[in-house]
Amino acid sequence: MTKSALLVMDVQQNIVGRVPDPDYVPRVARAVAAARRAGVPVMYVVVGFRAGHPEANPANKTFGALPPGAFTPDDEGAAVHPGVAPEKDEVVVVKKRVSAFAGSDLELLLRSGGIGHLVLAGIATSGVVLSTVRQAADLDFGLTVLSDGCADADPENHRLLTEKIFPRQAEVTTIDDWAASLA
């Protein structure tokens, strides 16, 4: 059986504030708790930059326009949301672009840990989740997307991705159904 890991992606304080669903963080917390109970490693992926954003090219529409100080070590809003905070032994991967793999050592950590299957949750469905699904599939990882563990500012984008696009490369399920499969 292939070893799995739960990736909690971009569930950072500044980003969670953009999710209108007040039940989002508690749902993701249920996934985290289920993974921990089942011995499935939980890994966190966050976007982060050095002070002054030297990694953010001004031509990049997403990251080139960040306000000074955003997502730097001094930005308290860049921390993982306390509702799903990592435990001291859980890995936090810092990425520099949209995909969880871009500008990070995620693939190295996964391969070193013998992990071949990723369970994805994160904000936004049309951002980090989409980019990570595509890249992880190209890297031959097995994939599960927790549809209600993902959130997007555009509900139609979320629906289209979880119902039409992701099933081509991943199993798509809910947090409760995935947690039940671990028992």
Automatic annotation (TrEMBL):
A family per Pfam: Isochorismatase
Transmembrane segments: none
UniProt KW keywords: Hydrolase
Domain of life: Bacteria
Domain spans labelled Isochorismatase-like: 4-177
Keyword Protein biosynthesis: no
Regions annotated as coiled coil: none
GO molecular function: hydrolase activity
Gene3D superfamilies assigned: Isochorismatase-like (3.40.50.850)
CDD domains: cysteine_hydrolases
Official protein name in the record: Cysteine hydrolase
